[in-house]
Amino acid sequence: MIASMTKYSFILLNGEQHDLLEKLQELGLVDVTRSTKATDDKSRNIVSEIELLDGLIAGLRKAEVPEGTVPEVIDGDIVRLAGGMLMRYAEDQGEIKMLERELEDLRAWGSYDLETLKKLEEAGVPLHFHVAPTKLFKQYKKELNDEYPIRVIKAGNANTWFVVAGEDDLPFEVSLPRDNVEVIKKELKDKKQHYKRVLSRIAGAKERIPELEQKRTRAVEKLDIYLAGSAAVPAAEDTIVTLVGFAPAENDAKVTALLDQYGVLYIKEEASVDDNPPITFRNNSFVKMFEVLTDMYGRPAYNGFDPTPFIAVFFLLFFALCMGDAGYGLVLILVGLALKKVESFKSLAPLVVTLGIGTVVVGFFLHTFFSIDIAQWEIFKPVSFLFLPNEIAGFAGGMVLSIIIGVIHLCLAMTIKAIEAVKVNGFKRSLGTLGWTTLIVGGVIVAALALIGVLSSEVTKLIVIALGIVCAIGIFPLNTWGRNPLANTGLGLWDTYNTVTGLLGDVLSYLRLYALGLAGGMLGMAFNDMGLMVLGDGSNAVLWIPFILLVLIGHTLNIAMCALGAFVHPLRLNFLEFFKNSGYEAKGRVYNPLKKQSLSSRTE
């Protein structure tokens, strides 16, 4: 749910705002309205400093230092020194690669004396070095030997290296080597010695990465305070300034205690929609895992609703249906547990484990384990009543289940839309929305009760007629309160066309849940069948190796493809079908209080 916010308006003497902002930053609870990007030369310089530190930290971490390298103690300004070392590190790498390529090219020519080559050229017998494709050289070898004094230096499968004494106009000539092999070898050896020293200094600089991270943290805090201070509004001929901040209402006591202790003049009031307060959520640990998905679309307006609880339930369900395999769910659980040990993915580990658990449960309901139908196993016969039937009313069970879930999802979205419309616009101005919601949701409920035999056909008919008449009043003549009923009726007809066609397409969109699960299952079965074909009757022990490899690689690829589809398509069903029918709008901004930065913080 969306947390209630308190608005704080600060009135200060010009020049006192920096001290107040530092106090608020230490508290870490107040979101002071401020720019998110550099606004002037000073803030741009701070941003440049942060970018420089980011580059140095990333460069030092990326630099590969061989195991066993003894770090050299680095004294002095680490920012200036690290930049120079990284430049030399890159230069040495490039020069070593160039020398190695040059050495490889020169090996074919062997050792020679440049002075002798120069004397021959002065004597009128210059040497021309050529590298030609071996196939072409063999084709014209006789003609070349007849016309030119040629000496073949090396003949390889691809190329032939040869020298011509005297003038010639042959193609494939290469530049005169600047030195012989031994000289290049010495240069390469010297460069590698220098590179070894650079690596030692890089290793020493790596030990000072925490110092660079601290500098970056201080720069981010400095930028945050500066941008907040630049948002201050001057008044009374610049003698005073005003600032506006927001904090969750549950933290009022902490914030007011600090402000009273500091002695600042402030006005505290409940935040309203017109204030455009930042949005923060108050959700339990389960729902909180899915807030990252809500933020991918955008946070709601202050008077809107938090869609995260609905996303948490339905995204989990949709993901599990798209994976559709209990075995794949176990793999996801193991992956999630492994991610807990990876610092950069640690925060996503609980979500992956939760998705894996959901996949295990739904996969069991679909009676599929690594694309094997476990309904045929004797061990599960006693609980076979828990399994989804292969057919429901003559249709595939998975297809019917997907449609039912889609209808429930859309009915929930429309109910939320009606509730929010009444809350924001009032009952009279929401009659059109209420009419459509009551007609569709009520119709679905009546149809469900009739199908299971709770309502007789006569009672169902009467309820449908009464429902249609009552809802038609809101849909047509009263859909916009205070406007001409004839105009409303025309608008209602247009809305009827859009609603009917739109809802049909939205419901059919949920068939992707069945289609993705079916595709993954069929592909997994194909890998199983290929493995069994290789294995045969299992009597040959050697064949178990290709069988295991084929099944393992096949299911690994299938899990990766299924996981991709199971993430994208459920996200689409929530962001498009659900958000559209619930009237959700991402107008809010994220709650971003002034606070001390952690070393892992990053500024966009």
Features:
5-stranded antiparallel sheet; Alpha-Beta Plaits; extended; 4 domains; 4-stranded antiparallel sheet; single chain; 604 residues; 20 helices; 13 strands
Secondary structure topology:
Blueprint: E1 5-13, H1 17-27, E2 31-32, H2 41-62, H3 78-107, H4 114-122, E3 127-133, H5 134-139, H6 141-147, E4 150-155, E5 159-165, E6 173-174, H7 181-206, H8 209-230, E7 233-235, E8 240-248, H9 252-262, E9 265-270, H10 285-288, H11 291-297, H12 308-323, H13 326-339, H14 349-365, E10 368-369, E11 372-373, E12 391-392, E13 395-396, H15 397-425, H16 431-451, H17 457-475, H18 485-509, H19 511-535, H20 544-582
Antiparallel strand pairs: 1-8, 1-9, 2-8, 3-5, 3-6, 4-5, 7-8, 10-11, 12-13
Helix pairs in contact: 1-8, 1-9, 2-3, 2-8, 3-7, 12-14, 12-19, 12-20, 13-14, 15-16, 15-18, 15-19, 15-20, 16-17, 19-20
In short:
The chain has 604 residues and is of the alpha+beta class. It has helices at 17-27, 41-62, 78-107, 114-122, 134-139, 141-147, 181-206, 209-230, 252-262, 285-288, 291-297, 308-323, 326-339, 349-365, 397-425, 431-451, 457-475, 485-509, 511-535, 544-582, and strands spanning 5-13, 31-32, 127-133, 150-155, 159-165, 173-174, 233-235, 240-248, 265-270, 368-369, 372-373, 391-392, 395-396. The two termini are 27 Å apart.
